[in-house]
Fold this protein.
Amino acid sequence: MGLNYSERIPNNVNLSGDRRLMRALEIWQPHFLEWWKEMGPEGFQAADVYLRTATSVDAKGWATFGYLKMPDYRWGIFLAEANPDERIAFGEHKGEPLWREIPGEYRGVLRRLIVTQGDTEPASVEQQRHLGATCPSLYDLRNLFQVNVEEGRHLWAMVYLLHAYFGRDGREEAEALLGRRSGSGDNPRILGAFNERTPDWLSYFMFAHFTDRDGKYQLASLAESGFDPLARTCRFMLTEEAHHLFVGESGIGRVIERTCQLMNAHDTDSVGLFGGIDLAIIQRYLNFHYSISLDLFGSELSTNAANYFSAGLKGRYREDDWRDDHQLIGATRTVLKPEGSVIVESTQPALVALNETLRDSYVADCERALARWNKIIGAANIDFALKLPHRGFHRAIGQFSGVNVTPKGEIVSAQGWESRRDQWLPTSADKQLVADLMRPVLKPGEFASWIAPPVRGINHQPLDFEYVADLPQV
Ligand code: BYC
Ligand code: FE
Ligand code: FE
């Protein structure tokens, strides 16, 4: 299905058929643009960026590529096609028709889910706004900006739902989404990871890998929702998300590849002197970003999660693939929990443990990507393997928060943990070393010393293509 770009707000939801809604969104639109100019990519608003724009909502062939200045990006409202036969797939309403309107009893919780999802999108743009100044190549710069404009569109996706279905309080929430600021003391973003700094490109690739991947799993479970407009908007967001995950995984893969080349060339583990990032530092960054992203799944035991599922608002990852009643009546599962100085398995109702079930899907996905990175190290004949730390390590949400768990999964004293913090999490020296490597590389086809070039360019373009043109004079 083609998308309508003749309107001020591109859409495939027949916006022009709803004057009230259109007017409300036209009031929000300039506020969004003000936010984008204030908090979007710093220094590059006037550059020409080789961006893709959605032109249909089919999974295949939905994109066109061309040069755009980011403020001219056509942020729009695109929902995946409706499936007329589809019914609610899980929970108490299983088998009933999908909701086209919000069931009154679920209004509050649904708004909260949509606001929480929506809040992460502008947060990530804010976290990444300084990165243009230190990009390792034009290719990477373009990918960063592609991700940024799409996160902006994801905000539009949630704001559409708020405006279209929640009346006045929806409009207020939409304004508030532009008011919070990542890392702010008095008006921060909602979830923990979205208030952390993303000071360098190693952090950025880790974020795109581990934190955007939480996005993939959360969106996939909202894409199961009985509230059809939410499900369909999340389905289309997932097609954009795939590129964000590619940027993260391949970015880290290229850093690893470069590190291995330098280790072999100079016969050393310490490649900092040669312009690379040690595997040990990469491991510590990984430990940090993985653990704060695990927190994004919420507590292991959550009545919120049980209620979302029973109400038919938020499903499991690929709900159809689960061979059970899709209601979890009487079902149980084991959940790890700290008990004194050990971690034990406890049996819990599956319904209240749904955050952990989604986390399981995420962890398995992270393991697969990790194996691909370790293959790069193996191919360089280097005897080292990156590892995912234990799920209890460095957690701030859930049963492990405040418990001193090592990456191997042992519970130790606070003192014992603190004394080894520098082995496990990025140290100030690590951050300084990485910061010192962050110098902009803006010549087409050139790459910074600490990262290997990608295998291929974007949209069949060569690696020395001018992915970003008309750069600011520095
Ligand atoms: N930080 O009952 P619990 C993305 C709060 S990423 C701070 O376990 P629940 C993206 C929680 O709100 C995907 N607070 O929580 C990625 C609750 O607060 P109250 C974003 C947290 O509801 C990269 C309390 O702790 N989408 O799209 O079961 C770039 C008790 O927790 C955190 C969604 O998250 C935290 N990490 O689960 C761009 C989907 N975790 O009630 C974009 C929508 C929990 O005490 N959200 N709390 O005030 C949800 O489904 C759920 O809200 C959560 C939490 C899974 C996040
Ligand atoms: Fe997003
Ligand atoms: Fe994303």
User: Anything to note?
Assistant: The mean pLDDT is 96. The pocket of fe (iii) ion (ligand 2) is lined by residues 121, 151, 154, 215 (CB under 6 Å). The beta strands are 48-54, 63-69, 332-339, 342-349, 468-469. The first strand starts at residue 48 and ends at 54.
